[in-house]
Amino acid sequence: MLGSSKKPLIKSLIAQGTRVGGGIGYQEGLRIDGDVQGDVFASEDRPSILVISESASVTGQVQADHIIINGTVKGPVLARHMLELQPKARIVGDVSYRTLEMHQGALIAGLLRPLSLEEVDKPTLKLASKNG
Description:
Elements: E1 10-14, E2 19-21, E3 24-26, E4 29-32, E5 35-37, E6 40-42, E7 49-52, E8 57-59, E9 62-69, E10 72-74, E11 77-85, E12 90-92, E13 95-97, E14 99-102, E15 107-109, E16 112-114, E17 124-127
Parallel strand pairs: 1-4, 2-5, 3-6, 4-7, 5-8, 6-9, 7-9, 8-10, 9-11, 10-12, 11-13, 11-14, 12-15, 13-16, 14-17
C-alpha cells in the first residue's frame, strides 16, 4: 500500500517539551517528540505514518500503517504495514506487524506477532546492519 502510492506527509507535530494527556486520532502523518499519555491512532481510510523520535515517550496503544520508533512506547504497537525500530527504540508491550525492520540496539519486552495467519510461515523480516 505505502510502496505503490505516495507516502503520507507528516502534517502534525507534538514538540519536545509538550505533554499530551488523552487519546490522539489523526490522519496521514504525525511526529511525536514530546510525551503522550494515551492511545495514538491513525485513521484507516488513508495511508498513515507515525514517527516517535528519540526524545519521545508514549504510554498507550499505538496504531498506524507505517510506524518509525526511536523513542519509548509502553503499550501495544500495531503497524498495519511497516514497523521500523531504530537503535534507541524501547517497547514494553506486544508488537503486531506486517513487515518489520529492526536495527541493532532496539529492545522489545513483549510478543512479536505477524498480522495474519497466512503470514505466520513467511513474515517479512528485514535485519538492518550498520553497512546497509
